[in-house]
Amino acid sequence: MSVQTPISGLPTPSGTPGAPKLLEVRDIVTRFTTDRGSLTAVNGVSLSLERGRTLGVVGESGSGKSVLSRSIMGLLPRSNTERSGQVIFEGKEISGLNDTEYRELWGDEMAMIFQDPMTALNPVMKIGLQITESLRFHLNMSKSDAKDTAVALLKAVKIPEPEKRFSSYPHEMSGGMRQRVVIAVALACGPKLLFADEPTTALDVTVQAQILDLLAEQQRERYMGMILVTHDLGVVAGRADEIAVMYAGQIVEQAPTALLFSEMKMPYTEALMSAIPKLTDASHTRLAAIGGRPPDLVNPPKGCAFSPRCPYVQPRCHEESPTLTPSPTAPEHLFACFYPIGSPETEEVRLRIAAQRLMATAPEFVAAPANTPTPAQQSPVPAPPEQTEGM
Ligand SMILES: Nc1ncnc2c1ncn2[C@@H]1O[C@H](COP(=O)(O)OP(=O)(O)OP(=O)(O)O)[C@@H](O)[C@H]1O
Ligand code: SF4
Ligand SMILES: [Mg+2]
């Protein structure tokens, strides 16, 4: 197994002709056996990632983001779990590895920043030791080299007074500082692939931006492949090269970031988009949340999984399940929808919804002649749900 220099020295780019991709995931399916029956948490996901690139994985709570990351890293629970599909890391199939082989990969080949920083750190162990442990295990460093490297890492993640902080316990640090330590632990052995699973949950907005900027900076400097997992499309907007939107265990839209924002096709992506806070919003403004609940993955709806919540739903959507297909105009843009944004069907519904909203807020501007049916009466599809469940 190759060993990367933890702090300095860029590895050879893996994008060179003939070099295998850093990561290729083919048709991953992960099921859990629950008291209520079999739950398909990840349902046929394929993706790939080159070194030096960031893939944003976005979706609501329960869409399968963490289970996907764990399926790739080999971190799934052993019992009640069934997984199929291929995970190819630098040209080698790794999905059949045993625990010892996986342990060799974790840290110096791939690392994960877990959702909750408190569970990622040992509360009764000084933070310096938490970093030096993996340096000694994976890179076979001497005690003093590991300490020097740990201090350099704390400095790299912008912890003030790193020599002093080396001897601090996690509870002596703020949430933002703890998350920097978690990042330092993940970066310690110079992984080629980094999963950052909601790395800024529970941090305030300013600290969130600092942590995300720090991650982006480290990803660039170390030329890592990064999978940035979040429920917030705004988080990945300026930070990911490509975005995969997940719903009910499936990728429902995937495209290079700029293309996804300019040519959004999936109604679910549009709904996630409207849930991004805007700079112009007053601080007390309630965000538009996506109406309805994510589907029960033990008993998913027939047809398109988003159909019970989709404002553009048509009869076909209740019968057939759309597959992820390249856009006719841009093959790198994939989406799974029969009536994508911009199609005549969605435009018709959009106009109808706009008219309904205008009627509700300013009826004097929409004086319908007597006996004219209202848009709602004419509509073959339901208006967008009024209910606002949180994401
Ligand atoms: N060990 C498990 N046993 C049974 N079901 C599980 C297990 N782990 C996850 N699930 C279920 O798999 C689905 C996907 O979970 P996952 O944690 O991947 O969601 P997520 O997109 O990461 O959500 P969040 O944004 O809340 O972290 C959920 O319905 C979850 O309840
Ligand atoms: S297939 Fe139908 S229900 Fe599903 S997202 Fe597209 S329009 Fe909505
Ligand atoms: Mg998660």
Description:
The protein is α/β, with parallel strands linked by helices and about 400 residues long. It has helices at about 65-75, 100-105, 115-120, 125-140, 145-155, 160-165, 175-185, 205-220, 235, 255-260, 265-275, 315-320, 345-360, 375-380; strands at about 25-35, 35-50, 55-60, 80-90, 90-95, 110-115, 195, 225-230, 240-245, 250-255, 325, 335. The relative contact order is 0.12. The strands form two sheets. The chain has an eight-stranded mixed beta sheet with strand order 6-7-8-3-9-10-12-11, sandwiched between helices. A four-stranded antiparallel beta sheet has the order 2-1-4-5. It contains 14 helices and twelve strands. The longest helix has 18 residues, at about 205-220. Helices cover about 35% and strands about 20% of the residues. The structure holds adenosine-5'-triphosphate, iron/sulfur cluster and magnesium ion.
Indicate the radius of gyration in whole angstroms.
23 Å
List unreliable stretches of 5+ residues: 1-15, 283-287, 372-391
**What proportion of the residues form beta strands (DSSP E)?**
15-25%
Q: At the fourth CATH level, what is the homologous superfamily of the domain at 23-260?
A: P-loop containing nucleotide triphosphate hydrolases
